[in-house]
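Dear support,

Our group has been running a series of protein-ligand predictions, and this particular one with uracil is the one our PI (initials K.S.) wants archived with full inputs and outputs. We had some confusion internally about which version of the output was final, so please treat the block below as the authoritative record. The input we submitted was:
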Amino acid sequence: MRMYDIIQKKRDRKELSEAEISYFIEGYTSGEIPDYQASALLMAIYINKMSRKETEHLTKAMLESGDTVDLSGVNGRKVDKHSTGGVGDKTTLILGPMVAACGLPFSKMSGRGLGHTGGTLDKLDSIEGFRTQLTEEEFLAIINKTKLCICSQSGNIAPADKKIYALRDVTATVDNISLIAASVMSKKLSLKSDAIVIDVKVGSGAFMKNLDDAYELSNEMVRIGQSFDRETVCYLTDMDQPLGNTVGNALEVAESVETLKNNGPKDLTELCLVLGEELLLLGNAAKTKEEARAKLLDTLESGAAYRKFLEMVESQGGNIEQIEDISKLPKAKHVLEVRSDAFGHVEAIEAEEVGKTALMVGAGRETKESEIDLSAGVVISKKIGDAVAAGDIIGYIHCNDEEVGKAACEKLKLAYSISKHFVPKRKLILGKVD
Ligand code: URA
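Confirmed final output from the archive:
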């Protein structure tokens, strides 16, 4: 077999066989196939698309490129949750403790952020001493004792995806449905959970910019999950504005703590309740949606979810004083106000631009090697549908370099569109595929 022939076949819109896809994945992962040939094939896939069969073969080959994580040592039914990536998405930090406080084990292997979307592990780095790199023994001991553990991917999970994702990132081939579906599912299937809930973000801050594409991606992932005998459910949720009010690592941990105490923003709380309902149903921890919601709400109202978060921080070596008093989390030197020049109602907030504003003040990574400023970020004070008077504060920039912060204030202002007319609030849950 020759890589040249595989590229030519896809260029000419022909379907690749399982053997050809495996040849590419094995050769690229081992370093035998160079980046320039892999890039050419990715671009041919991007332009000519893949059939369902090809996408399934690609997922299987990427999954088999690495190890699988055996969860049989975790007591009870195992459920997993994934988000395709959004701005201000701190759902895992809240949903995990809520679900675990309902008695269902929640073990999550998370990643770091790249570009304008943040990663859960970076947020947890805001807590002094918090360890995300655990041995398998530590992971099993923690999850079986507290029912909650958020850690980094262990060992060698889907190394083909790691390499291909990095190449897609620099060759403008990220936002292709087959490539995203295979990337997400190869990682999810590596973890031997019983069921998977995926939050597919849709809108200006997400890879999927419109609902049709998000449905296509969801159908693809649900079908792949089923073909591997894994119950998979996708929720399509709004990412046309940031989730909650904060974007930036320590700021998002503080907002998560407030949400766990039932003082969080409505959209963030509601999303955690909806995803939590599904997790409890799939995990046999509730019989109906109503029962699941009542249990989850109780974890917020009784403080059980907050206490579960404290337990997790303690068991993973973190400083709980910073959670008991969130003013002890990393703090930026400057907090700059952003005021509106216009009046009316907020019509749109370009979520991607808000993410890039946070990136500008150091809250994210431009490249894999970049250092993150844990204290930096953006606070949104007005969301879509809110009334605004000229001169009102629409947000804040938390920064350590005042000059960069001032430029970020201008950038945040540009992310907002204000209409003279009434604008309704946005719907959060846009669809479901199962
Ligand atoms: N998230 C992933 O894990 N992979 C993609 O390709 C896109 C989002």
